[in-house]
Amino acid sequence: MRYFATVILWCISASAQTPVPAPAAESSPSVKPKDKCSIEGTVVSSVTGEPVKKARVRLTPLGASESIPYAATTDATGHYLINETDPGRYELTVFREGYSNASFKDYRRFTLEPGQELKDIVLKLSPVGLVSGRVFDEDGDPVSGVTVDCVRFRYLDGVRELINEGQATTNDAGDFRLSFSTAGKWVIRATPPSKGDPVHERPIGQGHGNAVAAEQEYVPTYYPQTAKPGTASAIDVTPGAQISGINITLMRGATVQVKGQIKSQAAANPAHISVLLSGWDSENMYTVVDSKRGFQFTGLLPGSYSLLAVGDNGYRARVPIDVSDQNIEGLEVILQPPATIQGRVVFEGKGELKSRLPVLTITETTGMDARSAQVQDDLTFKFDAVTPGSYRLRVEGVSNTYVKRIRVGEQEGPEAPFDVIPGAGELTAFLSPNAGVIEGSVKNAKDEPAPSVLVTLIPEASRRTRLHKIATTDQNGHFKIEGIIPGEYKIYAWEQIEEGSYEDPDFMKAHESEGEKVSIKESTHETMQLKVIPAETTGKEKPDR
Question: Buried-most residue among 139, 295, 416, 506 (CB within 10 A)?
Answer without folding.
Answer: 295
